[in-house]
Amino acid sequence: xxxxxxxxxxxxxxxxxxxxxxxxxxxxxxxxxxxxxxxxxxxxxxxxxxxxxxxxxxxxxxxxxxxxxxxxxxxxxxxxxxxxxxxxxxxxxxxxxxxxxxxxxxxxxx
Length: 110
Prior knowledge:
110 residues, alpha+beta, Alpha-1-antitrypsin, domain 1, three-stranded antiparallel beta sheet, 8 strands, globular
């Protein structure tokens, strides 16, 4: 079932997935899996900047606000938050961007 665009930060809704387990608790999330029935335009809201594995990637999601950027990064943290952000931005600067298909899902707050 798609997440309502009324409550979403995205112009086109992503799919609502089965809950993920985080710290032994189920967490609602959105995104898409390999088997999907979402319109092609939904995938244009996603840019994959760097994808090394399911545990090491940087993705940008386009929100309804054109000047906003929502960057999701799952990487090994550096010593400080500032160093981690710098690492993400450095990798984004070197990356050749692509569009999905790697499956992506992210927690969301209702």
